[in-house]
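Memo subject: From amino acid sequence to discrete backbone structure tokens
Action wanted: Derive the backbone structure tokens from the amino acid sequence.
How to read it: Take the token row as a discrete description of the fold.
Attached in line: The record itself begins immediately under this heading.
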Amino acid sequence: MAGPVTNSQRWDESSAEESGEGLDLADYHGLARLIERMHRRYLDVVRVSLLKQGIEDVGPVQALMIMLIGEDELSVRDLMERGYYLGSNASYSLKILVDAGYINRAANQRDRRTARLQLTDKGRALRVELTKLEQLQAEALVRNEAEVRDLKAAYRTLRRLDRVWGDMVRYSSLDFD
């Protein structure tokens, strides 16, 4: 005897009729795991690039922070929100970057409790090299117009997933069924 029909089963049936295929929950679960694995893999790519350049005083997480700061002058809070860092992890990485001479961290003139971050010449030079690496990666991934469209579709899907998951966290008291 079958149990009650759930909302996800209703979606499966109605969407399957419209698109010709149903939602495969294994694909959804796999996507979350793939995102995590791809992030680790990307950090490995950055780590290898740093080692090839003879840079051993920062790791891939700190290198990504350099990319996030870019040419801007950011507060620590802005950096944490852009990169989704936790406070203690961000503080540790920022200390490494300041000690290695990649960023300047100065108290804000108006509010001495907040720090402003800006790349030094050394940090800007590393950013240029990391940007070149990203360009090579993009060229290896996207070789024709069809792959450009695929990349843009993947980006849109991941952005939508980010918004949905963010809303689920922010509005967790809401019933999504």
Summary: Helices lie at 7-19, 25-52, 60-69, 76-83, 87-99, 121-141, 145-170. The mean pLDDT is 83.
